[in-house]
Amino acid sequence: MAALRFMVWNALLLIRRPFQFFVRVFMFISLGAAIGGVVMIFTGTGSEQLDNEIPFAVRLLAPLVMVATYFMWSGISYLFDSAVFRMTPEGRSLTLFD
């Protein structure tokens, strides 16, 4: 059982850097979309016909969904790093670099 746990821990360490990069890219995309959505609430889209057709509730909910997505990606990143630390074998110290 200890060997299997050590193998899973090594696998998590191997995929950590690409996985964290992937998660951070989506975090920044979500954050940028949320900021863009907040700006669109106050300035509109630039198309009068589109501004008249979009209900105000949709304009409010779009940035909220993007902020929720940002926090979801942030939570996934935290849980992944927590799993790496929990699976660290006894007697080993672990320093994770970003």
Structure description:
This protein has 98 residues and is an all-alpha fold. It has helices spanning 2-43, 48-53, 56-86. Helix 1 runs antiparallel to helix 3. The longest helix has 42 residues, at 2-43. The chain is rod-shaped and about 65 Å long. The chain starts with a helix and ends in a 12-residue tail after the last helix.
Q: Which class best fits the helix and strand makeup?
A: mainly alpha
Question: How would a textbook summarize the main sheet?
Answer: none
Measure the end-to-end span: 30 Å
Order of helices and strands: HHH
Report the sheet-strand fraction.
under 5%
> How many strand units?
0
**Rg, nearest Å:** 20 Å
- Report the uncertain regions: none
Helix content: over 70%
| Tally of helical segments | 3
**CA-based shape:** rod-shaped
Q: Overall pLDDT, averaged?
A: 89
Write the layout of secondary structure elements.
Blueprint: H1 2-43, H2 48-53, H3 56-86
Helix pairs in contact: 1-3
Quick structural gist:
This protein has 98 residues and is mainly alpha-helical. The protein contains three helices and no strands. Helix 1 runs antiparallel to helix 3.
Structure characteristics:
98 residues; rod-shaped
